[in-house]
């Protein structure tokens, strides 16, 4: 069985595949101190709950946090008896290499998104990925990641307001009915929700103009669905896009070695 691991700056997500379909997805907070043994106890408990026998034979990892990769490698070696493919490392080949400035190392999550988006949509795509950061990943006609935009994430912005302004509470994001807030919480929710709505609209419009041809806009990450309530921001929402891209990269590497 294939295990795909998407480690972001906030959360680490594990998806277990059965053939072409994701069987289960589990999420834990990202913490570089978590050991291989801790991961395994957690994973095997969740597998047991679902009645899944843990026969993981290959693993592919995307990590935007370099420090966690060490313990994930130990997990693979000790408990799954395999060497993981780590996206961004030289031994992990990509179906199409990114076209960016010399020496730049795009986030592995963005490379996975590009691989997934190309397989599903065939290029000319913008992926809007809501994580710790809000990323826009531009995927060209041939499937190459060619750059994009990194904006502060929604939760990071909310947290920054709370930390930087003595009188502002921590607020959970939601879609406010009105733009003009009549209490502090409503004002903050409006600023962040409608602010990000404008950001997504504005940036995708500018990307399309600069790119110069029609593009598909795909939303992914937990908050994509929330923003889809605002306007017509996305052509599609695909929550599993990063995982799917990891699978594409895994299959490509397997095909190269036989
Ligand atoms: N459905 C959701 N509703 C509210 N907040 C969410 C949801 N999904 C994710 N978040 C929040 O968004 C932030 C980033 O999410 P995540 O996709 O896990 O980031 P990363 O991939 O960078 O680790 C986290 O603070 C998380 O709590
Ligand atoms: C922009 C990111 C921090 C987003 O990571 P995430 O929000 O998923 O944790 C990550 O893709 C990253 O570290 N990128 C490296 C720089 C680049 O992509 O150009
Ligand atoms: K992510």
Automatic annotation (TrEMBL):
User: Which residues does the annotation say bind K(+)?
Assistant: 129
CDD domains for the chain: ASKHA_NBD_PanK-III (cd24015)
Q: Which sites are catalytic?
A: 109 (proton acceptor)
Which of the seven top EC classes does this enzyme belong to? Answer: transferase
- GO term, biological process aspect, one: coenzyme A biosynthetic process
Query: Looking at the UniProt record for this protein, which Gene Ontology cellular component terms does it annotate, in alphabetical order?
Result: cytoplasm
Task: State the EC number(s).
Answer: 2.7.1.33
Q: Which reaction does it catalyse?
A: (R)-pantothenate + ATP = (R)-4'-phosphopantothenate + ADP + H(+)
Q: Which UniProt keywords apply?
A: ATP-binding, Coenzyme A biosynthesis, Cytoplasm, Kinase, Metal-binding, Nucleotide-binding, Potassium, Transferase
The pathway is: Cofactor biosynthesis; coenzyme A biosynthesis; CoA from (R)-pantothenate: step 1/5
In terms of Gene3D superfamilies, this protein maps to: 3.30.420.40
Which residues does the record give as ATP binding sites? 6-13, 132
Functionally, this protein is described as follows: Catalyzes the phosphorylation of pantothenate (Pan), the first step in CoA biosynthesis.
Similarity comment: family membership: Belongs to the type III pantothenate kinase family.
Q: What is this protein called?
A: Type III pantothenate kinase
